Amino acid sequence: MTASDGLDYTPRPLDRDATFYVAGHRGLVGSAIWRRLESAGFDRLVGKPSAELDLKNRDAVFEYMSEIKPKYVVLAAAKVGGILANSTYPVDFLSDNMRIQVNVLDAALANDVERVLFLGSSCIYPKFASQPIHEDSLLTGHLEPTNDSYAIAKIAGILQTQAVRRQYGLPWISAMPTNLYGPNDNFSPQGSHVLPALIRRYDEAAQTGAPVVTNWGTGTPRREFLHADDMADACLHLLEHYDGPEQVNVGTGSDVTIREIANTIANVVGFTGETEWDTSKPDGTPQKLLDVSKLADAGWTSQITLGEGLERTVAWYRQHVGTLRE
Fold it and tell me: What pTM was computed for the model?
């Protein structure tokens, strides 16, 4: 029972034989969730790649949802990118993500989906939120300008999930992962987040024998990184053990500087040259460390160390470097 919205729902193991729709099942987040659900025994997983189902097309989304009739939905589909992409295309990040979210959530509501997990991002929190960032910091200050459009879209998704709980009494929940990395990430030079961008930059430099790698900013901002497989495990755990209107932070509870993560990646890929920092480029938020006490109280903690996760991710990247999206 959650006093704030009056729902009377007891979290429990999900039905392994029920239809489970993973929206965005080919991306970093969705593919990890798909793998975790498969390993947990779910045998009616459904999903469609964006080439076959454009989630921005409302009619197509409603038609698909009425066809598959899922009992559970994880909304992991999103237009994502790093500082450069977010700064260059703010309209795209706001409009595309708003349409994806509204279409999928409205269609899920129209088809009486019992349990929905909406996935957001730690960028929803104010730029200068107290560290570590607790869930109740939401909407208490100004956002980081370089990704405010994406953040506003994700905040709207949280509020829609909460609104469904209040108006329709469905036990839908939302989770806010920290910076994620792992298999099926976006490693493109223009659209990637910081960690995959660094992996590509340093690995290419190591392969070509380049003497110098230049990174954006000062290297001083602190970031928390969580492997996508850990995130997927946390999502299933929340679906089966947590219910409440407030979003749940998903992370490790520890962070490193960008300079430290760059040095670690350089060591993992075997780059022996010099690293320079272009301080004319933006740093972004000074620190983004999540308070994960709510998640810990629900019975889950991260298992994959940053070193182990980086080695696995670099190995995956090298195996797939010729087929990565640009």
Answer: 0.92
